[in-house]
Amino acid sequence: xxxxxxxxxxxxxxxxxxxxxxxxxxxxxxxxxxxxxxxxxxxxxxxxxxxxxxxxxxxxxxxxxxxxxxxxxxxxxxxxxxxxxxxxxxxxxxxxxxxxxxxxxxxxxxxxxxxxxxxxxxxxxxxxxxxxxxxxxxxxxxxxxxxxxxxxxxxxxxxxxxxxxxxxxxxxxxxxxxx
Length: 179
Hints:
Elements (H helix, E strand, L loop, with lengths): L9 H16 L12 H12 L2 E3 L7 E3 L10 H14 L3 H11 L25 H17 L2 H26 L7
Antiparallel strand pairs: 1-2
Helix pairs in contact: 3-4, 3-5, 4-5, 5-6
C-alpha cells in the first residue's frame, strides 16, 4: 500500500550506516592537537559532513548548509568549514563539489555583476559572498596542490576579483569611505 513503511532489518541497516561513517572518518589525515583531540575532531567531521545536501537532478553539486533543512546556504559561513575539511583530510569529494556550486550555479555569467557569486535562491546578496568564495576556493587549490584544480577555477576566480575591484571603485566615490 502507498504510505506503508518499508520493512527492513534494523541491524543490517545500522551496520551499513556504521560502515559508511567509518569510511568517511578514515579520510581524516591530520588530528590538530594530537591524540587528545581525536574524538572531538571526529565529532566535528561527522557534524560537518551531515550539513552537506547532495542535490539530485540535473546539477552535480552539493549544498553546504549550516545546520538546518532549508535550501539556503551562506557562503560566508560555509567556506570556513570547507577549509577545515580540506585542512584535515581527503574530503575533496565534498568540498570541491561545493566550490563547483559557487563557481557554477551561483557565478554571475554576464552583465555588470559578471564575476559575482550570487546567493542561492535569491536570499540576501551580501557583498562578502564573493570574497568568501574566493578565499575558500583559493585555500582548496593550495591544499590540493593540483594544477588541474587551479586551471578549473582560475578564470572565474579572476573574474570574481575584478568584480570586487569594481565594487571598491564605486566606494571610492563616497566621501571618507576608502582612501
